[in-house]
Amino acid sequence: MVVSMGRMTNARIGVLMGGRSSERDISLKTGQAVYQGLIRRGYDAVAIDVTDRLHRDLEDHKVAIAFLALHGPGGEDGAVQGFLETLGIPYTGSGVRASAVGMHKAATKMLLAAHGIPLPPGTVVRGCDRPSLAKVLKQTKLTLPIVVKPVSQGSTIGVTVVRRAGQWREALNVAHRYDPEAMVESYIPGHEAAVSILGSAEGSRVLPAIEIVAPDGFYDFSAKYQKGRTQYLCPAPFPSKVAHHIGELARRTYEVLGCEGAARVDFRITPRGRPYVLEINTVPGMTETSLLPMAAAQVGMTYDDLVEQILKSAIDRASRFAQIVRKE
Question: Is 0.90 surpassed by the pTM of this model?
């Protein structure tokens, strides 16, 4: 249970949401929910729909701290994080490097593989290459079914499970519609799970795992955001050994990438209990159907508690900014 001990800051907090990515609508829902949570806790907050006027909006609203509720490219890939750092505005969540690596699935896999974290085997296909399915399967030693997805997208946007050879070309077309690079991976049969992490200057905390039971076994965009389509089991009814294992893998993933604040690591787990890390989300959703608030509730955190915990990552960053300025 997290107990609020009064506001952590009197500074104006700008909740940045919306943006131009394909996840704009979800970001607006996340942002509005976060904004209301801050207001309920008595913070001086303003909601900002991110456009090319962001610099002016930050100045006009006299924003001193940014709470990032942006999903996808432009908001979760280090771009807005770097922009805010040039302005000296502390923000929630991971920094530039962790955000950029975490958003790029191929870069994430290379880094995690170097640290021995289990990942689905696969490759990257560029839009200019257009290889045949037979060539890709031969080179990677994969067999159908396989998963094809954009390298830099979230919310399962542009993802196809290719079960028949005839689906290959269209799957590539869909993925390349969102990114010039497509990730091709082995489809891991079994269970889908997510483990959320909360980090602060004091260390990281692993929240209970959630098993995701989606229609047709595929956790796509509609399964994520349409109420009632998907069953969420929290805490996940995995054997204790499996639950502990994926919790530690999530923590290692978070720490290897150098994440801060909240993050969520997604897994596939085989029927025999072998887990594979799929990706990390460095700005997890905070809508009413999102997994991070669901996991936090299992350890006694209300939605507003969670918002404050994430805000703390910006307060910690503000302290580091101040130390850098003093040294200079």
Answer: yes
Pick the catalytic residue from 155, 196, 290, 313: 155
Active site residue 264: yes
Residue 23 annotated in active site: yes
- Decide if 279 is catalytic: yes
Residue 37 CA to residue 84 CA, distance in Å, equals: 23
Q: Facing residues of 66 across strands?
A: 14, 91
> In terms of DSSP H, where are the helices of the chain?
24-40, 54-60, 79-87, 96-103, 105-114, 133-140, 168-178, 221-225, 240-257, 291-297, 303-327
What is the torsion angle, in degrees rounded to the nearest 10, for the CA atoms of residue 123, residue 170, residue 269 and residue 209?
110
Reply yes or no on whether 266 is catalytic: yes
Q: Any idea what the Cα angle at residue 48 is, between residues 42 and 54, rounded to 5°? A: 135
The 10s digit of each residue's pLDDT in 140-178 is 999 999 999 999 987 578 999 999 999 999 999 999 999
Strands 181-186 and 122-126: antiparallel
The whole-angstrom separation of Cα 263 and Cα 257 is: 11
